[in-house]
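agent> Task received from the user: take the single chain below, predict its 3D structure, and emit structure tokens. No templates, no multimer pairing.
agent> Plan: (1) validate residues, (2) run structure prediction, (3) serialize to tokens, (4) report one or two observations.
agent> Step 1 OK, no nonstandard residues flagged.
tool_call: predict_structure(input=
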Amino acid sequence: MNARMVSFLMGIFSVLNTIQFLIFDLNQTTHIGFEEKYSIFLAQSTALASWVLSYRQVVSCCLSVTTILVSCFLLYCVHRNVYTGLPVYAVWIVTHELLCLSAVMLLYTAVREQFRALAHLHLVFQITRMALHLSGLPFVVKHGYSLYRNPQVLGKVGRRRRSSVSTVDSLPAGLGVLCRKLN
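)
tool_result: status=success, residues=183
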């Protein structure tokens, strides 16, 4: 497997994994009970923690939709041998994973003691997702560097055959002779 194939597989993996985690985030339960609602989170003393708890689903949706768009852009750029999509994907994935990790760590501290096992599971999922996303980044960067350094080698333009017949030879007999005399 070369760097181009791994970059393509990383784009597909990123789209599918982001959809999976978006479904998990949107279906995550924050209250337990039928008649009396019992929150799994503690009352927050900081404004940042309460904001993250309040807008957790909106932030998750925005990050996921942006990641899916960037991953589709990566797939397009790998298919067309365009350089710009690869560094955009690399920077966005690092940013996305750091934002998600900080949100998970913030929510980890806000979970009640009875539900700490759920917080551990969420943290393990996040660390595993980070490891999987970041393990393919060297191949994406390598493919991006090879496209940046020599874009003609990998593209269809570089593989096009050159004609052995010159333009002057393809002109009618009188014009070809006249053109040779002028040069």
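agent> Step 4: summary for the user.
The CA atoms of residues 121 and 153 lie 46 Å apart.
agent> Done.
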